[in-house]
Amino acid sequence: MNKSPTNIVVVICHDLGQHLGCYGSPDVRSPGIDAFATSAIRFQNSFCAAPQCSPSRAALWTGRFPHANGVVGLTHAGFANDLNPDEKHLVQILRGAGYETRLFGVQHGARSAQRCGYEHVHDGGPCGELAGDFAEFISQRQSTDQPLFVQIGFFESHRPFPHHDVEPLPRDQLTVPPYLPDIPEVREDLADLEASVASADRAFGRIVESIRSSNIAANTLILFTADHGIAFPHAKMTLYDPGIKVPLILSVPGVCGGVVHQEMISNVDVMPTLLDLAGLAHPAHLHGRSFQGLLTGGQYTPNEAIFAEKTYHTYYDPMRAIRTSRWKLIANFEFAPWQETSPDYFGNAKGYVEVSKALKVPHDAQYHPPFELYDLENDPYEQHNLADEPSRRSTFEDLIRSLRKWMEETGDPLLEGPMAQATYRHRMMEFKRIGQQADAGESKLR
Question: Based on the domain organization, do 327 and 220 belong to the same domain?
């Protein structure tokens, strides 16, 4: 391992999941990412802690699950969720250790980049522009002993699937995932998604090339990932595998690449791993476990299970899940619709609505059951709920116990009752303030 301070560059895509050639999607044009994966270290079974943008990113950067770090829903606009005041973001820790910290594009894990600890923030834009801005910065950066941390956040491939520099493929050339119906609206969305991924791939390739041709090439860790699964039914905003499986590919100075690991990794494990690779101490109370030993040939005990959660996206829909190598158990704590959609039919949700119509889901099945149990070995697309199968009762109860234990150990407030997001707190404060002012005004008139 290189003993001098390690530069870290992290590239994060929106809503990508494992929709890449190197993860088995045959029609996706991702040669840049695929080539990087061939020479780097790729994790086949990598998962996010939450299938929504902000909670997943907050978990990635704090090494703690969303229900504990405060980001139980989206951070932007009126959703207003943010990291708890005492939460330590990785960038804060690195900055305190002397790193130069820069953000290009999207961060979306807290209310502001400043809360995360970034000194320098470069404006967002299409992924190609971000890659160009980063390449220009690296080419002009003077040689220095100060280590560098950069996050580059692409909006691609979030709906409406921007693809400024790539034309979509013909729809009939695309493979529809087995968990979706083969209807025109799905193929239309898949074509735009694929083009958006291809655009991000070009930008990522330029970023890697700019690093490898720079004066920091020999001592820079490059990590590529995404926040959660693709923006389609049975994926984003759900705890099914297409919603929580994400790419995790990294090259580490002094560590041989060309390796694919099958161990289950959660994105809460990334923060402690990066701290270990940077030679820095961990904050207390992390939920993630470093996998440095897996990278360097040291000691490592694989995760026996990974955990995922959803509390809010556009509305309250609390659920928790445990996933082992074979089994998935999802506990749904509200009687909410089976698939969350946007109210913007034409701009953001047409595919969701048309999928629901094509599947002809009976009315009594349009809401979450209390529990879902899937045998991933025999049912990898999670189509057959075994929670009520008497022959699976022992497995079901064991997973319930393990899930409850995790919730207890990580201090999940959901065990004590319904959880409010920041919207409620802010609006209730304003409601009370206006009421108090009205009371004071009325008393003056008496």
Answer: no
